[in-house]
Amino acid sequence: MTYNIATLPGDGIGPEVVEQAVKVLKAIGEKYGHNFVFTYAPVGATAIDQTGEPYPADTHKLCMNSDAVLFGAIGDPKYDNDPKAKVRPEQGLLKMRKDLGLYSNIRPISPFKSLLHRSPLRQDLVDGADFVVIRELTGGIYFGQKGRSEDGNAAFDTMYYTKDEVRRIVTLAFDYARKRRNKLTVVDKANVIASSRLWRETVQEMVGDYPDVAVDYLFVDNAAMQIIQWPKQFDVIVTGNMFGDILSDEASVITGSLGLLPSASIGTHTGVFEPVHGSYPQAAGKNIANPLGTILSAALLLELGLNLVEEAKAVREAVDASLSAGVVTEDISEGEKAYSTSEVGDWLAKQVLSGVAV
Ligand code: IPM
Ligand code: MG
């Protein structure tokens, strides 16, 4: 079968890590008899340089007409310290989320045994942690009304949610919990914020439909603390856009290996699969960046985007094998030889094809 994959490398290390994921997907195609067609398009600072827009209409068209989107990273330091820049790479990301209707961002958090000692937390706290942060991605304060007073001395952003928006993300979270350990934690700030009270009210209207799922509620400040104190208590966490932005970064570092974490953004149209890490401009072009986050995002693309579950498993097994064999980039190598980004990609592609370490 033919699958069309919109390939959006983006900025910084994006192109080099995406190239490795493409190699691995090609190997999967060869092994399982699929024809993956990769069509490239610009996004982020790269797209601004080429077209003036961070998410050009042609890129959107390609995404809409594809079966899945493989995304690298966006962001460029030349925009970070210029709060007055009219066009910013991040606007491209937000526009893509909105235009593709990607209302959910899914970040699985589970540490790799061989990297446990890299966690900033005690190993016994992290070993066995296994949870998913599900973040609402197209609403809340990111997209609510915002503005500036006439004299320019005040500004505001609005955290706005409708019951429908809450219901569709929480439905997805309940379904996820059912496929896992049947526990759902709803994170909000209902003691202060009106839209959080709407979240709670909406969830309470839904719990009757999911008697097999245990639901609890945490205020976001408490949740931030509990993720550090006792991460093993969580199964599925669901929360709004900004709380999810913050908590998912916090959750990702406890594994000690940000470079390995994948994410999926799913919604109304084509799903987008990208590593959790950013564009890491200092490493761009040096062939040292860790490609595993993007390769594991390709595994999510196979599983959630194309429903190719066995193929996704083969990618994850190859990644496990590379970790065991020490075929890793310098950020996680232990004194032994560090491999380059492309060497890790080559090794994994061969591993997928042969099923044995080469
Ligand atoms: C993320 C990022 C983005 C966000 C930025 C780059 C706009 O932090 O995907 O988590 O805040 O959503
Ligand atoms: Mg973020």
Shape: globular
The name of the CATH superfamily of the largest domain reads Isopropylmalate Dehydrogenase
CATH level 1 class label of the largest domain: Alpha Beta
Ligands (ions, cofactors included): 3-isopropylmalic acid, magnesium ion
Kindly report how far apart the N and C termini lie: 29 Å
Largest beta sheet: strand ordering: 2-1-3-12-11-4-5-10-8-9
Q: Strand-and-helix sequence, N→C?
A: EHEHHEHHEHEEEHEHEHEHEEHHH
Q: Main beta sheet: strand number and arrangement? A: 10 strands, mixed
Number of spatially distinct domains:
2
Category from helices, strands and their pairing: alpha/beta
CATH architecture label name of the largest domain: 3-Layer(aba) Sandwich
Number of helices: 13
Strand content range = 15-25%
Secondary structure: helix percent:
40-55%
Low-confidence stretches: none
- Strand count: 12
Here the CATH topology of the largest domain equals Isopropylmalate Dehydrogenase
Any chance you could write out the topology, listing elements then pairs?
Blueprint: E1 2-10, H1 14-32, E2 35-40, H2 45-51, H3 57-64, E3 68-73, H4 77-80, H5 89-99, E4 104-109, H6 123-126, E5 131-136, E6 146-148, E7 155-157, H7 163-179, E8 183-188, H8 194-206, E9 214-219, H9 220-229, E10 236-239, H10 241-253, E11 262-266, E12 272-275, H11 292-305, H12 309-325, H13 341-354
Parallel strand pairs: 1-2, 1-3, 3-12, 5-10, 8-9, 8-10
Antiparallel strand pairs: 4-5, 4-11, 6-7, 11-12
Magnesium ion binds next to helix 10.
